[in-house]
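Ticket #4471: complex job returned nothing on first submit. Input attached below:
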Amino acid sequence: MANSKPLLLLSNDDGYQAKGINELIKALRGEADLVVVAPDGPRSGASCAITSAVPVHYEKVKEEEGLVVYKCSGTPVDCTKLAMHTILGRTPDMIIGGINHGDNSSVNVHYSGTMGIVIEGCLKGIPSIGFSLCNHASDADFSFTLPYVRQIVKETLKNGLPYGTCLNVNFPDTKDLKGVRICRQTDGVWINEFAECNHPRHGGYYWLTGSYKNYEPNAEDADHWALDNCYVAITPTKVDVTAYELMENMKSWNFSLD
Amino acid sequence: MANSKPLLLLSNDDGYQAKGINELIKALRGEADLVVVAPDGPRSGASCAITSAVPVHYEKVKEEEGLVVYKCSGTPVDCTKLAMHTILGRTPDMIIGGINHGDNSSVNVHYSGTMGIVIEGCLKGIPSIGFSLCNHASDADFSFTLPYVRQIVKETLKNGLPYGTCLNVNFPDTKDLKGVRICRQTDGVWINEFAECNHPRHGGYYWLTGSYKNYEPNAEDADHWALDNCYVAITPTKVDVTAYELMENMKSWNFSLD
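Support reply: We reran it on our side without changes. The output follows.
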């Protein structure tokens, strides 16, 4: 075969110049052919947002042996869709988001642009993984995560993932990693979510901020516990969000019109 | 009690001036005290996106007996968070997104700004419902949906929703409704997602478009089948996206570093 290495599509929500995605490239370079299609600037908190009111465009910024990098004007999901529709030319063996600067465990999965990429890949039937480090700093140290990134990608390429499932992998911000734990999504909530400031001429404006309240800090099977206890947290995630139990319960409700 | 009517927070992703949210107000006016906090313009496809790079602000645009309307510079989820943090002053009895101009069944739940509002409400422990009509037109006829909207809201206020669950309600674009079906999320995929155009001076640009491919057109328990067959589709939805079956399976994987 002319092309025996797997093809991996990489993207992120911090932009193609962020340290995290460049560390991801470093981790996987040589193991696979890498195509990066990432936003041209920060898109943190983009979730699965798509751009429909304006068109999107992309541009090649780098091409080397085994690596091509494109920047794109859209959201992380736009990047992923456009890569598959237009740029790649063949179906990738895996889609990877990250490495994100910041925690995507627990409820953060819903707001995460990194996980938007992964959910998009999963909806397209492609094994997909999001990697995130619990450190928002632009110069965060990712070095200790890279051997785990490589091993998790290799093991997932080998085993595959069941249709409709993907992986949300979070690293605690410590070099003293105790290993990997397979987790469920922690139940918790963001509180005190805005800081109010006064505009010099008119009214208030609000910065999104807040603190995370863990509803189950002692749940050893939950991803937040794993991170708090120095484990790499792998949270298997699904795209069918049906509440099946509630379906049964609701069959006795009254929907007849008066 | 001075205040015996329930308090409902309404938002949408089409903007506070859209017909859909004004029809929603019409449906619920008098049944409850309504506070609208909606984007100041269209935010279709915003998913659960949040705004963190810039601050957000809001402004009151209307106040009448039982109805206050605010417009907000942020995403649908920003509107929902800001309403709960700053505007409402008490916990709403329900959060409602819509009525959306366009279908949010099947995989669209992931891209939907309407369902972003609902997921945010659900994460905050508040019964939440998204309503959508399978018609994108800005002047779509919502009139036949309004009695169902009212009945579904009343029945949900009466019964409540289990913690961590919410409702995704879609209406087919027909006056000949056959009733309500409780459904699961249909498995399907968007294909041919971009139309390429040429810029007069440089390169291509891409409009998001595409067609939906239903993987299970004959599944009578799926939301897309209900819509295709003139039923109101209620899809109970959950915010815990853990793939529990895969958790077990992955415990035999090898994550030891070489």
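The first helix of chain A runs from residue 19 to 28. Closing as resolved unless it happens again.
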